[in-house]
Design a protein that fits this description.
Layout lengths: L2 E6 L2 E6 L5 E5 L10 H10 L17 E6 L7 H14 L7 E6 L8 H8 L1 H6 L1 E4 L8 E6 L5 E5 H5 L2 E7 L2 E2 L3 E2 L13 H12 L13 H13 L1 E9 L5 E8 H16 E4 L5 E5 L7 H4 L3 H7 L5 E5 L21 H9 L6 H14 L3 E5 L5 H6 L3 E2 L3 H12 L5 E4 L6 E4 L2
Parallel strand pairs: 3-19, 4-5, 4-9, 5-6, 9-12, 14-20, 15-16, 15-19, 16-17, 17-18
Antiparallel strand pairs: 1-2, 7-8, 10-11, 12-13
Length: 423
């Protein structure tokens, strides 16, 4: 019997899958990392994409806001931010006129220690670093609606700043197609109402997600919001599945994003040649809770045969979500039931409701078995998933459902993968 290793919780975990059932083991490509990251950062700052150098575009009286992704992302902010601060200083902007907001979206607030680990002790000492307090309505300002009707409620710090620079990473993402660029504004520093509407927008069209699709309504919405707050510049990286930087892209928001997406598609795109009955999808590196690990479902949804089975493997030590604790009341419903309840204001947490719709759409294509030591059997049932006491048990259960000749594909790092069908 072939032995397949997956990095469950970052630790190599062997799986035995019968040879006659094993279709493909898909894993991210190995690409050359940036060996002199500091030098590449400086080079990117010297030669921005689509706009003049930063020092030429700011004035000494400007107030600058850096918008940085949080500790659920691996973006090396501690290496990126100091060179940006130095450039701003050389343009006459003192550190006291620069701040950095942690773009939490609707994640839990970061601790001071977590912020220090993310941006580095030097940055914590030089400038103000603070959380996007998305639960506090007093810090939000209303900027109307997008062309798709999404209400724009955004942190006032971005509106008050003269210069806004977004920092993040570009990976395939089921809601806007790819993360990065304007996603740092929405959902990064927007209110929950805005984020809920954006998530719901991604579910309006039914079927598969927007994973890996550059042009889609959600990206249009996010770009519109970034334009409204005046974010013209981003510093995005592309990383491999080990968290090593393989590309650096600084400059005008759309130009830098387009260049980064080209590399991200090369890095994360994996060809598959068979439509499997079963997909075992491992959540690494998005392992903290199911609010992160759910990203492992969408590559599997893209690949699996209709009526098949998806096996989700995730440690999830913080459970389903330490923040959105009410969503388990309705995650077992159908996608139409959830959308109807939200439209009738019977569900008030729109962000959670929208993700519950996406999760239901996965189950409506394929049944889901979950192996997760961090999520109880009861909570798995409330998600609409079958509890697996072990991965071996999950594989055997899936074969019972799909038949002894069923074909199994394995995604070793599913959140960092973009399946591309090749006949």
């Amino acid at each position: 019997m072939p032995v397949v290793n997956i990095p469950f919780g970052g630790q190599d975990t062997p799986l035995g899958i019968p040879e006659e059932n094993l279709a493909e083991v898909l894993t991210p490509k190995t690409m050359e990392q940036v060996h002199d990251l500091r030098g590449r950062i400086e080079q990117s700052l010297d030669q921005p994409l689509g706009q003049p150098a930063l020092e030429c575009r700011v004035g000494s009286d400007d107030r600058v806001l850096l918008v940085c992704d949080d500790n659920t992302r691996l973006t090396p902010a501690a290496q990126i931010i100091p060179p940006i601060l130095n450039r701003l200083n050389r343009a006459g902007i003192p550190d006291r006129h620069i701040a950095c907001i942690m773009a939490l979206g609707t994640h839990r607030y970061m601790t001071a220690a977590e912020m220090t680990a993310k941006v580095g002790a030097e940055v914590m000492q030089r400038i103000k670093v603070f959380n996007h307090e998305w639960r506090n309505p007093e810090i939000l300002v209303d900027l109307g609606r997008t062309d798709h009707g999404t209400p724009i409620q955004v942190n006032q710090a971005a509106v008050q700043a003269d210069v806004v620079i977004g920092l993040g990473a570009i990976v395939p993402h089921h809601i806007p197609g790819y993360s990065g660029s304007s996603k740092i504004i929405q959902p990064g520093i927007c209110g929950a109402r805005t984020t809920a509407a954006t998530h719901m927008l991604s579910c309006r069209f039914g079927g598969d997600s927007f994973l890996g699709l550059v042009d889609n309504p959600v990206r249009e919405d996010m770009d519109h919001m970034a334009d409204r707050v005046g974010m013209e510049t981003v510093f995005n990286v592309v990383m491999d599945s080990r968290g090593q930087v393989i590309g650096v892209f600084f400059g005008e928001m759309r130009a830098a994003f387009a260049a980064g997406v080209n590399l991200a598609r090369q890095a994360y795109g994996v060809e598959y040649h068979e439509i499997p009955d079963i997909v075992l999808t491992n959540s690494y590196p998005c392992d903290l809770d199911f609010w992160q690990a759910h990203k492992s479902q969408y590559p599997a949804q893209r690949m699996v045969k209709a009526g098949g089975t998806i096996i989700v493997a995730t440690p999830a030590p913080e459970g389903v979500s330490p923040v959105h604790t009410d969503l388990l009341d309705y995650t077992g419903w159908s996608s139409e039931e959830i959308k109807e309840a939200y439209a009738q204001n019977r569900l008030t947490n729109g962000v959670a409701a929208a993700l519950a719709v996406a999760w239901a759409m996965v189950r409506e294509k394929a049944s889901v078995i979950m192996y997760s030591p961090g999520i109880s059997a009861r909570d798995k049932a409330r998600l609409g998933h079958t509890h697996a006491p072990s991965l071996d048990w999950a594989i055997q259960k899936a074969l019972e459902r799909q038949g002894p000749k069923a074909r199994i594909s394995v995604l070793t790092h599913a959140p960092d993968m973009l399946p591309i069908y090749s006949r």
